[in-house]
Design a protein that fits this description.
Elements lengths: L1 H7 L3 H4 L6 H10 L3 E8 L6 H7 L3 H7 L6 E7 L3
Antiparallel strand pairs: 1-2
């Protein structure tokens, strides 16, 4: 979120970045005539040892609830038979 805000504020590195949402990626699959498979998200925790240790135990639960806040998304596209 911080990088997205920096882009909105005009930071040269993030201004041209496009942050894909899960829905946008899913729509690309549908437009490519692929069937949506599994969707997984992962979060990158900065190297702040204490923050990572606090969040690590709840990360698996959060990932099962959806991809909100995910830094990295993996979407499986299945080719129809």
């Amino acid at each position: 979120m911080q990088r997205r805000i920096r882009g909105w504020a005009g930071h040269s590195l993030w201004r041209g970045a496009h942050f894909w949402t899960t829905s946008e990626i899913q729509n690309l699959l549908v437009d490519s005539e692929l069937r949506l498979g599994r969707v997984h998200g992962a979060v990158y925790y900065p190297p702040l040892g204490s923050a990572a240790r606090l969040l690590a135990p709840v990360d698996p639960l959060l990932s099962r609830l959806g991809t909100f806040g995910a830094t990295f998304l993996v979407v499986e596209g299945v080719k129809p038979v």
